[in-house]
Each structure stands twice: as structure tokens, then as C-alpha cells.
């Protein structure tokens, strides 16, 4: 099972790296994430250069796709050629976005009428796409999920691991990376955020 963590130029390190690192804790169980980039090298919002592990075309074969956030996301959604390289299919893929990545899902027409989560800076731009933005860190409907706030990337990873390997696997991963002495409360918070984000469906 393979996960594409789509990472554009100007990316937010927390958004791409936390999700990919958490998912890669599951390699022994056959779940692996790859930083997926439109160019061989991308530079983060803080000047960190990263060599992509997979080219953008990898998104078509990935079982799950997470769209990272960054300071150039509005440029991304305005680039028809770049957007055309993201032929995502929620009928067979789990698809998630982090912060401004919600703009990409909106541009691709994947949100439909569902509300979304995003960061404070991106909120007005997501709302301009006729998407209702929730005051929550995580929301999912079916195979599509959105997370808002850099550290909510742990909730996006928790959701993905739960969907692909089960809740016990997600609990193990979050419990392992949790601050020492805060393991139980960190796991409980992550699971609560994911369950609450899915509970809106009723």
C-alpha cells in the first residue's frame, strides 16, 4: 500500500514531513509514504531543499494521496497544467489535504458540497471557492479528508492509517511518537479528533 504525499515548491515542512513520517512507521505492515513532487527538487517556505522520492505521475498508482500545504498553493491551483497532473479518484483512493491543500481539492472538484478544514490564512480563499470552512482540525466524508493547522497533520495520518490498517495500528504509531508521559492523552486526542471529524455524517 503506497501513499503519495504531494509536496509543492514553497511547502510547509510540518505538513508534508509529519504525515509522511507517521505513515512510514507502518512500513513493516506494508504501508509506505513517499514525498511526491512536480519537479525533482522543491524548496520549502523556509528554504529547505528536498529531493522528491516519486514524480507527480506516482499519484495515479498510489492507494492514498495527501496534498500538502505551502505558501504557493494559490499559484498551484492557478496553474492548469500542474493541476492536470493530479487525476485523483476518490472511488479507489483515500484523498486528504492539509491546510491550504484544501484549495487543491476544491480546484479539482473533489469537495462537492462537503465542508472542509484549513488554516486561518487559507480560510478566506477556500471560502471563496464556495466551500464551508469548519472551526475544527479535521473532517472526513467517505474517502476524502481535510485537516487544518500544521499539527493537525497527525490527525490526517491517524485517519489514513486507521482506514488502511485499522485503529490499533494508528494508536501504536501515535503512542510511539507522543511526548514521553503524554502517550495516552495524545493517542486519545488523535482518535477523538478523527472520530469527531467523521461523526458529522451521522
Give me a quick take on this structure.
With 202 residues, the chain is an alpha/beta fold. Helix content is 36%, strand content 18%. The strands form two sheets. Strands 5-2-1-6-7-9-8 form a seven-stranded mixed β-sheet, sandwiched between helices. Strands 3-4 form a two-stranded antiparallel sheet.
Task: Give structural notes.
With 202 residues, this protein is α/β, with parallel strands linked by helices. It has helices spanning 13-23, 73-77, 80-83, 101-107, 123-127, 153-165, 167-177, 183-199, and strands at residues 2-6, 32-37, 41-43, 49-51, 54-55, 64-67, 94-98, 138-141, 144-147. It starts with a strand and ends with a helix. It is globular, with a radius of gyration of 15 Å. α6 (153-165) runs antiparallel to α7, α6 (153-165) packs across α8 and α7 (167-177) crosses α8 (183-199). The chain is built from eight helices and nine strands. The strands form two sheets. It has a seven-stranded mixed sheet with strand order 5-2-1-6-7-9-8, with helices on both faces. β3 and β4 (49-51) form a beta hairpin.
Sequence-ordered SSE layout with sheet pairings:
Elements: E1 2-6, H1 13-23, E2 32-37, E3 41-43, E4 49-51, E5 54-55, E6 64-67, H2 73-77, H3 80-83, E7 94-98, H4 101-107, H5 123-127, E8 138-141, E9 144-147, H6 153-165, H7 167-177, H8 183-199
Average predicted confidence as pLDDT:
92
Largest sheet: 7 strands, mixed
The class by helix and strand makeup works out as alpha/beta
**Portion of residues in helices?**
25-40%
Measured between the Cα atoms of the first and last residue, the distance is 29 Å
Relative strand content: 15-25%
Individual helix count: 8
The total count of strands amounts to 9
Order of the strands making up the biggest sheet: 5-2-1-6-7-9-8
- Computed over alpha carbons, the radius of gyration is 15 Å
Task: Give the SSE string.
Answer: EHEEEEEHHEHHEEHHH
Amino acid at each position: 500500500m503506497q501513499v503519495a504525499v504531494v509536496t509543492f515548491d514553497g511547502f510547509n515542512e510540518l505538513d508534508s514531513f509529519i504525515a509522511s513520517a507517521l505513515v512510514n512507521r507502518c512500513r513493516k505492515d506494508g504501508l509506505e509514504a513517499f514525498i511526491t513532487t512536480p519537479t525533482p527538487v522543491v524548496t520549502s517556505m523556509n528554504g529547505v531543499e528536498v529531493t522528491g522520492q516519486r514524480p507527480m505521475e506516482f499519484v495515479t498508482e498510489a492507494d492514498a494521496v495527501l496534498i500538502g500545504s505551502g505558501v504557493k498553493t494559490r499559484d498551484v491551483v492557478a496553474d492548469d497544467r500542474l493541476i492536470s497532473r493530479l487525476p485523483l479518484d476518490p472511488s479507489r483512493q483515500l484523498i486528504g489535504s492539509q491546510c491550504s491543500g484544501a484549495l487543491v481539492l476544491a480546484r479539482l472538484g473533489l469537495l462537492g458540497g462537503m465542508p472542509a478544514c484549513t488554516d486561518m490564512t487559507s480560510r478566506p480563499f477556500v471560502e471563496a471557492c464556495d466551500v464551508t470552512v469548519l472551526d475544527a482540525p479535521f473532517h472526513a466524508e467517505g474517502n476524502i479528508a481535510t485537516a487544518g493547522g500544521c499539527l493537525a497533520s497527525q490527525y490526517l495520518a491517524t485517519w489514513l492509517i486507521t482506514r488502511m490498517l485499522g485503529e490499533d495500528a494508528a494508536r501504536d504509531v501515535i503512542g510511539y511518537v507522543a511526548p514521553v508521559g503524554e502517550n495516552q492523552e495524545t493517542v486519545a486526542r488523535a482518535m477523538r479528533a478523527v472520530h469527531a471529524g467523521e461523526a458529522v455524517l451521522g
